[in-house]
UniProtKB/TrEMBL annotation:
PROSITE patterns: HTH_ARAC_FAMILY_2 (PS01124). Residues 174-271 form the HTH araC/xylS-type domain. InterPro entries: AraC-bd, AraC_XylS_family_regulators, Homeodomain-like_sf, HTH-like, HTH_AraC. This is Helix-turn-helix domain-containing protein. Transmembrane segments: none annotated. It comes from the Bacteria. It holds the Pfam family AraC_binding. It comes from Streptomyces anatolicus. The keyword Zinc does not apply. Keywords: DNA-binding, Transcription, Transcription regulation.
Length: 283
């Protein structure tokens, strides 16, 4: 099957605040190692999704869900020649926490225990959420989302462990991350960053990877794309967003954005604008 058969739509529905939506079919697509601020709840309809998570490759086939907690590094690629087709919802942590508090016994920050869950019924619920959003059925979309998240938390939920800085290496990694967050557009070299933190470059690499699951340069790319997402949501053009977050130009942003988000920045922003236009028309 040709790569042109790949399709993806990444959008929001005003009646589901704090939730991103995705329908996609990928064949040759590979997702770079990245994280999300939201949960990933992906229901696989066809094919196999392979994603590296927790130190190993995970395989999600038809009737299963790929489940990723916020700020958890992972990748993505096809596990079979025909690729994979899926639908996904990305609820914000506060959305999941509100549902968990009302419908489960989980206390503390809720999350998913296993990254792959075999549950065709929950997969169907995810796709019904997307269909209701596409049809503009706010009551159904909101109801089905809550039913799906409740089911998944009851079957595969638990309290997320608190992340505490317990070692010198973890403290060094946290300080390095803070520096990079403040200098996305003009970050220091690894040698300069290590020297400023009074450690060796290799010690910094090791500490950062242990703390955040990726080396500083990969984390920086991920953080730049996250910042670009917020700028695009606010109406900044892709070209200006690229410059603001430190990419050399719009094609540079587009390449990394597509490898992480799954759609180009222009397509991502058009869907946001469509939601805003429809909201204004109704008001």
């Amino acid at each position: 099957m040709a790569a042109s058969a790949e399709q993806a739509r990444h959008w929001r529905y005003a009646a589901l605040p704090g939730v991103d939506l995705l329908r996609a079919r990928y064949i040759h697509k590979t997702f770079a190692r990245h994280t999300h601020e939201h949960f990933v709840i992906a229901g696989i309809a066809e094919g196999v999704d392979v994603f590296h998570h927790g130190g190993a490759d995970q395989y999600a086939g038809p009737g299963t869900l790929a489940l990723v907690n916020p700020d958890t590094p992972h990748t993505g690629r096809a596990g079979v020649p025909e690729g994979w087709r899926y639908g996904a919802v990305y609820p914000a942590p506060e959305v999941v926490a509100d549902i968990a508090a009302e419908t489960t016994a989980i206390r503390g920050a809720p999350g998913f225990v296993r990254p792959v869950l075999d549950d065709p019924h929950a997969v169907a619920l995810v796709h019904r959420v997307l269909r209701a959003a596409e049809e503009g059925n706010a009551l159904a979309a909101d109801t089905l989302l809550r039913v799906a998240v409740t089911r998944l938390l009851r079957l595969n939920g638990g309290r997320l462990p608190r992340r505490a800085v317990r070692t010198a290496g973890a403290g060094t990694a946290a300080r390095a991350r803070a520096v990079l967050e403040e200098s996305l557009a003009d970050p220091p070299s690894l040698s300069r960053l290590a020297a400023d933190l009074s450690v060796s470059p290799f010690a910094l690499l090791r500490a950062f990877r242990d703390a955040y699951g990726m080396p500083p340069h990969a984390w920086l790319t991920d953080a730049r794309v996250r910042r670009a997402l917020r700028l695009l949501d606010a109406g900044t053009t892709p070209a200006d967003a690229a410059t603001a977050v430190g990419f050399t130009d719009q094609p540079h942003l587009s390449r990394h954005f597509t490898r992480i988000v799954g759609v180009p920045p222009g397509a991502y922003q058009r869907e946001r604008k469509n939601v805003q236009d429809r909201r204004r028309q109704r008001s």
